[in-house]
Amino acid sequence: MLYPDNCQERLGFNEVRQMVHQHCLSTMGQALVAKMQVMTKYDQINKFLRQTNEFKSILENQEPLQISAFFDIKILADKIRVEGTYLMEDELFQIYSSLQTVFSVLRFFDERKEIYPNLEALFEHLPIEKNILQKIERVLDAKGKMKPNASAELQEITSSIAKGEQEVRKRMDSIYKMALGKNWVADGSLTIRDGRMCIPILAENKRKLKGFIHDESASGQTVYLEPEEVFTLNNKLRDLEFDKRREIIKILIALTSELRPYTPLLLSYHGFLTKLDFVRAKALFAIDIQANMPILLKEAKTKLINAKHPLLLLSFAAEKKTVVPLNIHINENLRVVLVSGPNAGGKSVCMKTVGLLQMMLQTGLLVPVDEASEMGIFDQIFADIGDDQSIESDLSTYSAHLTKMRYFVAHATPKTLVLIDEFGTGTDPQFGGPMAEAVLEVLNNKKVRGVITTHYSNLKLFAGDTDGLENASMLFDNSKMKPLYILDIGKPGSSYAFEIAQNIGLQKEVLELAKQKTGTNQNSIDSLLVDLEKEKRQIHETKINLANQQNKVKNLVSENEKLKLFLEENKKVLIKEAKLEAQTIIRDANKLVENTIAEIKEKQADKVVTKELRQNLQKSLVKNEVKEEKKPVVKFDDTEIAVGDWVQLINTETSGQVLEINRGNLVLALGDLRSVVKRNRVQKISNKQAKKVAQSNSFSGRISEAIMNFRPELDLRGMRGENALQELENYMDKAMMLSFPSIKLIHGKGDGILRKLLREHLKKYKEVTRLEDEHADRGGDGITYVYFN
């Protein structure tokens, strides 16, 4: 239940409704948008949210679900019900087009069973009755026009008309040429008058040719005459046209009668199309506002993470600006958040964001929050926003506020969300403050939930001393005198009245006089709040800097782990290659020795020959000996190391370029990897020396070789699920280690089970940014592209 009646308007929900309305393809979907109401049943809300979320997934994954246009076939179904009525050709074609859309959608979901269970519930037990299409196709062509052979009689009439028109044309050409030869014809050619073909004849010659005059020119010098012979033929043609029209109506009546038994099914199809259009519009709007589905709770509480006001988000996006996200929680212990702070600091936007998102959620719309957000269900939403003074009702601003407060106190429950803007204003602060405090105390005793904005100090003090109430403030940069639009729960905020006035340039004597009139205690409280704001801001900035440092450390550790893993794998490869090479050398040496011994025996130990064979053996062994590769002599540079210089690790042949210098540590680029080393573990070398070392360094070469040998395409067709996942994991490790931007997985279509399994597994990788199907002409949803951040 919403109170007051203009609650939706004040929170901006009417604008949201209008944006959803614009995404509808049909008047039926628009009618459902107009009927959207706040719901309170968990199952109903959950169903609508999940349907929208599934359709959003279809749109984002660019699934081939074609919904271009459809019509309101309920009106046509109602017309069919009446005996004796018939549908026109265009009406039958509307039914045909709409049913094609229905069957296309049903086929789409049938190919993806159990992937979109909530959307499948929209057409549960809905049959595909293709007889309807076949009956219409028998009568209408692809453009929705009556086929000439829709019946034997129509075909015969159509053939007679074609022959008659040919005869008329032939006779008319003959008469026209005769009249032209006798100079009876005026300037111009054959023309149409009153639907009949006529010859333009000079007025003085009109009695020389028998026929019927249909018209004459403005000057009266030319008459338009239909020859007598042709007149008779045209009359026969007109009779045939009447016969054709009667036959068409007869066919339409017969077809409509055939469709009459299908009226209940047509209405079911209509209901399905209406719901589909409605869900599609909500999903498109969700994409516009970057909305997600939060965790839905049955309790009356909420925890918003990175929430954004949808209307503000769209407005800022048009201006290429970003919205500062809101983080707030309301539960059984922290029931009412009292937000204070400077004017134009974002207090009202904070309160309206909470109210609007709650209203959207309970109407089945996805909301622009983080997926980890939690949102419950409230039975009532009460709002006191803006000035509702009324001349007709004789209500002042304050009277209007009190009227709402009376209703709030009388009807609020623990499942009521109360939203009040500028609590207590509209009357003398000396009385308005205590009155607001009393109302707040009664509402708190009723354990209501809500967000309230105020400038009153007595309310801030009351919230600080009362269980269930919590102060919050909108952060303000007092050095730049600009609001930060960040909600800080836990302390009240200053209104910065004097600071803002001073920044604007209000005269000094006015400010001093105002401070004297404010009183010492109030000035002390306000100064204390300003100091607390400064300290809180410093702590907030320190936390951000610390978090950034921690992220850097985490990234460096991760890179080091990758480097270590790569080196270990590389070490195994080198050892394996060395063993193989050693085995080859030994094998060749053994063959050479055996051959030499054999030849010595064959020559019967001749000294000269034996000496020559021994020399040849020595030469072969020297030739096959593994010589140590000459390394370039590196000259070190003793000058100070700077960013961009090349350095070499002491006692190693590994070199890299300096990316950052952080005290005694250096961040080095080693090929495609980064590493942190101590300053005393490296020596500076020249760029020329760095190139020589890099050429002799097998590490970067092996990375390049690995990249060259790696194919960004993996074929998993025919594999069992478990084997496919194992293969995918090994492949993903290599792809991410080699920093490939994307890979291609070939899994085939089939029943879609392997595709679903692989995609669910890929969602667990935080490095994966999005998944896309191949183009329909090149494999469609049988191939998945995986993109990395």
TrEMBL record:
It comes from the Bacteria. ATP binds at residues 341-348. GO terms for molecular function: ATP binding; ATP hydrolysis activity; ATP-dependent DNA damage sensor activity; endonuclease activity; mismatched DNA binding; ribosomal large subunit binding; rRNA binding. Its EC number is 3.1.-.-, 3.6.4.-. Gene3D superfamilies: 3.30.1370.110, P-loop containing nucleotide triphosphate hydrolases. Residues 714-789 form the Smr domain. Keywords: ATP-binding, Coiled coil, DNA-binding, Endonuclease, Hydrolase, Nuclease, Nucleotide-binding, RNA-binding, rRNA-binding. One of its GO terms (biological process) is mismatch repair. Pfam families: MutS_V, Smr. The keyword Cytoplasm does not apply. Residues 525-606 form a coiled coil. Endonuclease that is involved in the suppression of homologous recombination and thus may have a key role in the control of bacterial genetic diversity. Belongs to the DNA mismatch repair MutS family. MutS2 subfamily. Homodimer. Binds to stalled ribosomes, contacting rRNA. This is Endonuclease MutS2. It comes from Pedobacter cryotolerans.
